[in-house]
Amino acid sequence: LGEGADADLGALYCVHVTSTKRAGRTQTQLEDTFGLGLNGAYAEFAVAPASALVRVPDCVPPAIAAVAADAGTTTWNAVNGVAQVRPGQRVLIIGVGGLGLLAVQIAVLAGVEDLSVSDPRSHALELATRFGAKRTFTPQDLNTAIVGGFGVDVVIDFVSTAETFRVAREALREVGTQVGRRGRLVIVGVGHEDVKINLADIILTPIEGFDIVIPTLYGKKEDLASVLDLLAQVWPLI
């Protein structure tokens, strides 16, 4: 423990590894980030500035805290910091794997009642329903619903392919026709395939009534603290 470091020896901490600012405003600098710009994500020991430490509540075990420091912080930032979901909004989450299921729970916690999800896997849709989603769609069913007039205010895309981009835009078109309302598409997923997108589809979105936001890969230190505080309220599970 270095001189002047304000930390308790023997306590469990998460390390906030970047100085990420809100997505859409300042791009995260990843060159000095463990596991991305620097080797050492799985090192047994690492030197970290005391200012980057976030105390883990005593009731939260290390394995759960590790998830909070990465997946939890990323999702919290995407849902609350970037999408800024709130009660009364219609929200669609595309892709309900690990991060998507976290997003479902965080959105419900934020007061979203009209929550829809899309995923090709039936077991993922079942889990999303258990966690609070009101409507579930396979990709095919979602396309059919959109043709029939289904629309939302916010789409959070954890898949991010050319097809999900198209579907998200279509789902947001309806809100763009309403005076005084704007939709928002938040792109979180980082896929490996090349995505071909017509630039006009991006440039014209403000006219169509919604905004596209690409968040950073992480979140703020305050986001990590919020996730840990939330875990302390529900852990241990009974």
From TrEMBL:
Single annotated GO MF: metal ion binding
Chain ranges of the Alcohol dehydrogenase-like C-terminal domain: 98-232
Pfam annotation, one family: ADH_zinc_N
Domain of life per record: Eukaryota
Necessary cofactors: Zn(2+)
UniProt keyword list: Metal-binding, Oxidoreductase, Zinc
PANTHER family attached to this UniProt entry: NAD-DEPENDENT ALCOHOL DEHYDROGENASE
Family according to the record: Belongs to the zinc-containing alcohol dehydrogenase family.
Protein name according to UniProt: NAD(P)-binding protein
